[in-house]
Amino acid sequence: MKKELEKTYDPKQIEDKIYHNWTEKGYFHAEVNPNKKPFTIVMPPPNITGQLHMGHALDNTMQDILIRFKRMQGYEALWQAGTDHASIATEAKIVEKLKEEGTSKEELGREGFLKRAWEWKDEYGGRIISQLKKLGSSCDWERERFTMDEGCSEAVKEVFVKLYDKKLIYKGSRLVNWCPVCNTSISDAEVEHEEKAGHFWHIKYPIMEDGKPSTTNFLEFATTRPETMLGDTAVAVNPEDERYTYLKGKTVWLPIAEREIPVIEDSYVDMEFGTGVVKITPAHDPNDFEVGKRHGLPEINIMNDDATINENGGKYEGLDRYEARKKIVEELDSLGLLGRIEDHSHNVGTCYRCHSVVEPLIKEQWFVKMDEMIKPASEAVKTGEIKLIPERMDKTYFNWTDNIRDWCISRQLWWGHRIPAWYCGDCGEIIVAKEEPKVCPKCGKSHLKQDEDTLDTWFSSALWPFSTLGWPNETPEYKYFYPTDVLVTGYDIIFFWVIRMIFSAYEQTGKAPFHTVMFHGLVRDSQGRKMSKSLGNGIDPLEIIDKYGADALRFTLITGNAPGNDMRFYNERVEASRNFANKVWNASRFIMMNLDAAEVPANIDLSELTPADKWILSRANKLSAEMTENMDAFELGIAVQKVYDFIWEEFCDWYIEMVKPRLYSDTDKTKAAALFTLKTVLINMLKLLHPFMPFVTEEIYQALRENEPNEAVKSAMEESIMISNWPTFKAEWDFAKEEAEVALIKEAVKSIRAVRTDKNVPPSRKAKVIVVSDKEEVRKVFTEGESFFASLSYASEVEVQADKSGIDDNAVSAVISQAVIYMPFSDLVDIDKEVERLEKEHKRLEGEIARSNGMLSNEKFVSKAPEAKINEEKEKLAKYTEMLKQVEEQLGRLKKN
Fold first, then answer.
1. pLDDT attached to residue 534
2. What one-character-per-residue DSSP string does 263-294 give?
3. How far is Cα 208 from Cα 219, in angstroms, rounded to an integer?
4. What is the 3-state secondary structure (H, E, C) of 680-714?
5. Distance separating alpha carbons of residues 873 and 315, to the nearest angstrom
6. pLDDT of 819-867, one tens digit each?
7. Residue 533 annotated as lining a ligand binding site
């Protein structure tokens, strides 16, 4: 039964049906196959709380393009999919839901809360996966993983215990970033710095003299956080600062807190900034923490976990941090210890999840020691073992690796991988183990309690490239598919995830997790703004798919895309992509209708092809080579532009138009060659386009395959375009001579069309075309291509000659390389109508000249009008006079005829 393409392309009718067929046939599934080379991509696992947004759409479109390309090239291509438990985000969502229900996680208890969390995962965890399927993602869903599934959890425990045994994981009290809303520590990478308007408050601390605070001598400094002075344990000056040498060994009085604190000397202090004096608060500032360690200063925490002032804040206890700030400033002012207040815009650390301002607090937490572990990760990029695309990301990468601090991995949350550490209630021993110990190995008692904290989400995500393949077990999948090949991700998570995967892979497997990291930019709105809920400018990819189809969205996201660069998204671009899909559809329908009406040879002797056939085959041949090179270099935006230009311009606008006279003829002996070429190029074109527009190309390919009358040819065609062979360069299809010949004819056609456009000649008006060239080989090109050349140039007839003999002097000419094209003027223009038009124009110009002359001879106008206005009128007069002269010349020529 014949499969006909509908008159109009409707993605809604085909996309779900095609995707279902792909999954049913198992085309996305990859197996360990010693006969094939593997190619692996791991999907950045979206959060189970996630809803598909444009960033996901871009990220997964790029991965899908690469995996489809490699699959067609014959690789055993695995796109490993999965989702992330996203501890902070998921817990926050569930807590919010519980609040709506009038309860809390504390009321449920840990066990009850985790039961709800798993129910949440079951309900919402698959939502984003189903949305990724709408996009056409050809992941191996049979291998889908979750960061808290049994295998990944085993890997997490294996790594934690291993690193602890190597003393690379430790527990200690250090300054951490604390989110007072999420109520957990977060790592440096999870702190986003936002520009916020604030103030510099200049504060004076009295210098202690004879055991009393001086009323005349003060040390002045500026701070953006006056409330933290409650935890000051010193003020510091630079040892090289001669202004303060007299203060060596002295102390100052800390007002409000009413304590005496020392003046210390430390090179950390910038002498050139402000007064050269800095207050030191070790418990609430990372730099002060380091200074405090060097000088043995006490660490006074003045804040509760919810950012209210604790008992160390004296009379300010219980106040919110900002309310305490306000009251402290008022009290300092009343004591005469407040100097000027400056407006100050500065970067403030905020939680990446809830965007509240984080507080540096000293907490007992678990840390990963980074100074040694980061070295292989840094070296891998330096030596090129891992390549970052674009190269400019190297600088960002090294800026992080060179300044990395120990990674705080514990989180005060219940949802996540619980830290595999137990505390003995009798002897205080800490036992770190993969399984819960029965008794304490030190004292033999069984009074054991597991650590309450969970691990940072990124701890498990860092193991993703190998944990998903069965590590720590030496599974066949791990041996075959690891290391993976390419990671595609946004530049905004280079610290969160990319670097952590790299150092974790070297530490655990001794290998790089992938050889290339391809960074893409953000998808911004039409004004270049970041899409956000607050701006209300987010665009739902699912709505775009519903309106225009997944192919149109994918094509839009990749067109003009360059690694690492942000892109603007607007609907006009999606409409243009849909129009392109329609162009491909309509061209395919036209070709298939002609294939149905005639017998098409399965193979053809190349000598039977016309120069036009050889030209398009040669162009398609070169396109496959160029696109392969671009795809291998991850230049997806360049590759897609090339296939677009080829299909729209060379194939549809030129070749199909060139062959129409042959298709419509029953006597043309080259008709079979035209049909063979159309079909061959169409199939290759669909294959090259497939990674970018998988649905429309599959639907057309299936129709071609089902309608193939030759059973041998049909059986040789793969049952799906996605498992067909990627077109490769064929030396026998390299027709440089014919390419040059058709280029010459195209140049002639473009010149003729330009002349006709200039003279407003409608396509329906045919004109004789005379090609004049003293070169025999040029004349031969036009003689052999006469049939399609005449059609494309709207010619009534074509003559090819060696000289200009017999051509009227008034013939319109167009010069091209190695030839001149002539067209009789009377063929192009209806002389009577043209004379009538020019006489009207002559009359109009005379009127304009009379008007200009009248104004310029009017003394009133000349004396009162601005000089610019007078000059403008003079320019008009000169222009009209020149135009009148040209019209008169044209009229003179026409009336002679």
1. 63
2. EEE-TTS-TTSTTSEEEE-TTS-HHHHHHHHH
3. 10
4. HHHHHHHHHHCCCCHHHHHHHHHHHHHCCCCHHHH
5. 82
6. 889 988 888 877 777 778 778 889 999 999 999 999 898 988 888 888 8
7. yes
